[in-house]
Amino acid sequence: MKYLYLHGLGQNADSWNQVTRAAEELDNSVCVDLAKMVKGKKVTYSTLYSTFSEMCDSENEGITLCGLSLGGVLALNYAIDHPQKVKALVLIAAQYKMPVRLLKLQNALFRFMPQSMFQQTGFEKYDFIRLCNTMMELDFSDSLNQVSCPVLVICGEKDKANKKASIELAHSLKYSQFKEIPETGHEVNLESPEKLASLLQEFYNSI
What we know:
AB_hydrolase_fold; alpha/beta; 6-stranded parallel β-sheet
């Protein structure tokens, strides 16, 4: 089994390092760098998802996808489109219907931020803006029944922007459970890596 970890927008593949080091499946874990996947291409959600799908399709065995925020959206999208390929799914602070108002607010803030604040992510400033713009119409509400694998939905206690959607998502998926990580915000993999790793290990051992 291959375990693929997908970071959020504003993070990079290294954002998972503390989590994967604490997990028993380290040898089978791959922390995907989303920016490198679309390097040299026009950064849109469809381009990113297409490239990510090709990578997953190339795996000869079943995969477990663990994604945070943007990474969670990609993981959910792929599990809907390829239920036979995904053996387990972990969705952290993931939305299944894009919060358009929040995305517009984020983009407004991005426009005033200096380019230097985006460099460590591998994306350019306007990659962020274009990516958010092309995600606004995403809505998986009517497709959640396509997901057939066990699902663990996680959200930080302090992540007010995503908690409601995470609980709704867990209730809407067939074989899912919801876990909240106390005293933690949106970036669970950075704020509470050991607690997250413990939840992941418990989930992986149960499937």
